[in-house]
Design brief:
CATH architecture: Up-down Bundle
Strand content: under 5%
Low-confidence stretches: none
Radius of gyration: 15 Å
Structural class: mainly alpha
Distance between the termini: 54 Å
CATH topology: Monooxygenase
Number of helices: 4
Helix content: over 70%
CATH class: Mainly Alpha
Number of domains: 1
Mean pLDDT: 89
Largest sheet: none
């Protein structure tokens, strides 16, 4: 592992962990009104692009971080859709 990989893993941990508070808040409150759907979809498309890029250049830090970030953001998106439908039905 070289110095660039160390920075890559460090950045991966920070940027991926940044979405945990939003996911936890969304699941606890069962609300995601404060999350912009447009921003979320654009971000997911960007993360998918990073995954493709990471694959093309064989970058493990980029692949791992963005795969986890994709999962977290998909969970936020699913929660946003589910909780908004649940509120509409009430």
């Amino acid at each position: 592992m070289n110095n660039a990989d160390i920075f890559g893993y460090f950045a991966a941990i920070l940027t991926t962990a940044a979405f945990l508070p939003q996911l936890i808040k969304t699941l606890k409150t069962k609300r995601a009104d404060d999350v912009s759907l447009t921003t979320l979809i654009m971000f997911i498309i960007g993360v998918l692009s990073w995954i493709i890029y990471g694959y093309k250049i064989s970058s493990t830090p980029i692949l791992i971080a963005n795969s986890i970030t994709l999962i977290l953001n998909l969970l936020i998106l699913i929660s946003k859709i589910y909780f908004s439908k649940t509120l509409i039905q009430r």
